[in-house]
Amino acid sequence: MTTRKIPGRGSGDRPQRVSSGPARLRMLLVLPAAAATAAALAACSSSGTPSAASASGGSSAHVAAAAVGLKTAKIGGATVLTNVKGFAVYSFAPDTMTKSDCTGACAAAWPPVKGPATAGVGLTGKLGTIKRPDGSTQATYNGHPLYTFIKDTGPGTDKGNGVNAFGGLWHALTASGSAVPASISSGSSSHHHHSPATHAAVTTPPAPPATAPAQPANPIPQGNGGDHDADNTGGPSDGDGNI
Question: Among positive and negative, which fits the CA dihedral 27, 31, 33, 37?
Fold first, then answer.
């Protein structure tokens, strides 16, 4: 931009600003470029910075996908595998290492443990997952698909241990993945934890002493001790060979 006097314009021939050709052209070129740069920066800022809603949604999804924790707890006289809340987890005898045989009403009573799972302190068994018929993922421990039991109303109970339902036996598991004997866990339901019944001792009365059979009476009249034949006068023989 330059200034110069233009004669004949009045007002004392004050200097007037006149744009030179090259400077004006440069300004016209710079302004659109600056506008384009600002638009690009705004677009990058909008796409690169997640909104609060999207950030919150991502956090929720991460929490939902968090692995289920497993640990051990003492239930009665056994160390039993449980979830992080202390509820016993079970295996179902008809299951295989790759397939659950508990669906429908069975799965409603024995909810599958969602996979994957993580092992707590002291657990050295192999963790894994299987795909259930409905497409969900179920946690396994040493090849056993895992379940909880709806009748376990609080931590420290294993009311499903030893139950025969939906076509097979259910067992609580030890840290090694073996079945917990039903007679050990005191937290189980009474139908498989009865104490042996006690009975009062029964004494047998002694047998009565044996008695000699009664001898039949001798029909022969006896006199003088039976040693004289005179006492049998007119009678039958008394057996001594004389009459």
Answer: positive
